[in-house]
Amino acid sequence: MPKEYRTIEEVAGPIMLVRGVQGVTYDEMGEIELVNGERRRCKVLEIDGGNAMVQLYEASTGINLDSSKVRFLGRTMELGVSEDMLSRMFDGMGKPIDGGPDILPEKRMDINGLPMNPAARSYPEEFIQTGVSAIDGLNTLVRGQKLPIFSASGLPHANLAAQIARQAKVRGTDESFAVVFAAMGITFEEANFFMESFRETGAIDRSVMFINLANDPAVERIATPRMALTAAEYLAFEKNMHVLVILTDITNYADSLREISAARKEVPGRRGYPGYMYTDLASLYERAGRQKGKNGSITMIPILTMPEDDKTHPIPDLTGYITEGQIILSRELYRKNVTPPIDVLPSLSRLKDKGIGEGKTRADHADVMNQLFAAYARGKDAKELMIILGEAALTDMDKLYAKFADEFEKEYVSQGYYADRDIEETMEIGWKLLRILPRSELKRIKDKFLDLYYEAK
């Protein structure tokens, strides 16, 4: 029987101090029993001799310092996992919220996971088709990659996340593919949008959803992505599935980290965030990847809203260091009704070169991608020049590039949230746009591909 303590010294927000404890360890789970018999969960944050500082997972209201009891359970927080989790919805602590029965776990796993040995990692190099041209064609997602989406307040990142979750697939294989979706600190309206979107399209059948609402405790928000990643690790490395993990919104997660750090009276770092935020984010992001000798994989798309549209803010800044690129959403494109409003020039997928080419996408993919980037960049420069000096100041070639930039945004980037384009369709749209320019301008494409595709009207 766990030992019970009636030595609660102090409660301050989500933090509680218990004196005179023995044999209690960091990260151990505890249970608080109130006078009325109600039980609430907590976790050990710090041990100082016989004093334990614990973090509450529910409200502190009703905890009586004299009569409430605390018992420590001798284990860390765990998630019961089984294949029955597919097509189910859970709250941020892993309890079902879809009206279905509790999961009968095949095993229980520590939600903090185990760090993946770098020597055991396989290099990500298999193409994942999202059905979104701006990603598949220009910033390709590769199996086992961490590719965040940098959004801003008011931009439709939720629609893009739902679209990727519905459409993502590994081409050319019959291997099992699953989506683990974790939402942190979102409104009920957003949660309902995701639930309905997954149900309507049947994507729910291969998905596991963890939803933490804005009015749920901040400390639950810290556990939510870890619950999701534990479920993903089980499906990927024990059931050999290819798992796409979508985490939204990392900004809400980091704000909860700051809130709890302030409650613990820790020395704040940049913008009030704790100094260990880099390590904390890395403990989430680095759980993605592929392992040698195992067929399954975890590919991760974290989504964050940049406060004040500032990509130098600590959250996008640290995320950019840890992950392999970023997809950036643009307010300017959103105002032009481009959907999804992906700004392809500052976006980057550092592993795209390994996931494209013959046998993966198409032999001409790299050349077309480079030419599209170059032509769009020159077209945007021409349009800026037109605004300053007027259209009369542009050469005929500059006008062609300006036309290309407009058509590129309208046809290639803008496709709506329900168009699922395969890579062949994306490539054909790219070639169609390149035909706006004379062949002599397409210097980044090999002649054999120009002969094959440029001349084919």
Distance linking N and C termini = 78 Å
The percent range for strand residues is 15-25%
**Residue windows where pLDDT falls under 50 for at least 5 positions:** none
List how many beta strands DSSP finds.
Answer: 22
Main β-sheet, in a few words? 10 strands, mixed
Instruction: Give the averaged pLDDT, no decimals.
Output: 91
Q: Report the total helices.
A: 13
CATH topology of the largest domain: Rossmann fold
Structural class: alpha/beta
> Which CATH architecture of the largest domain would you pick?
3-Layer(aba) Sandwich
Radius of gyration: 25 Å
- Report the principal-axis shape: elongated
Number of domains: 3
Helical content (DSSP H or I, runs of 4+): 25-40%
Oligomer: single chain
Q: What is the level 1 CATH name of the largest domain?
A: Alpha Beta
GO molecular function: ATP binding; hydrolase activity; proton-transporting ATP synthase activity, rotational mechanism
Pfam family, one: ATP-synt_ab_N
Domain ATPase F1/V1/A1 complex alpha/beta subunit N-terminal: 9-74
Protein name: V-type ATP synthase beta chain
Question: How does this model look, in words?
Answer:
With 457 residues, this protein is of the alpha/beta class. The protein folds into three domains: 2-74, Elongation Factor Tu (Ef-tu), domain 3; 77-353, Rossmann fold (3-Layer(aba) Sandwich), CATH 3.40.50.12240; 362-453, no CATH class. It is 34% helix and 22% strand. It has 13 helices and 22 strands. It has helices at 133-138, 157-167, 188-201, 218-237, 250-263, 277-285, 314-322, 331-335, 352-355, 365-389, 396-413, 423-434, 447-454, and strands spanning 4-5, 8-12, 15-18, 29-33, 39-48, 51-56, 69-72, 78-81, 88-91, 107-110, 121-122, 127-129, 141-142, 149-151, 169-170, 177-186, 207-213, 242-248, 289-291, 297-305, 325-328, 348-349. Strands 9, 11, 14, 16, 17, 18, 19, 20, 21 and 22 form a ten-stranded mixed sheet that branches. Strands 1-7-4-5-6-3-2 form a seven-stranded antiparallel sheet, with no helix packed on it. It is elongated. Belongs to the ATPase alpha/beta chains family. Residues 354-454 form the ATP synthase A/B type C-terminal domain.
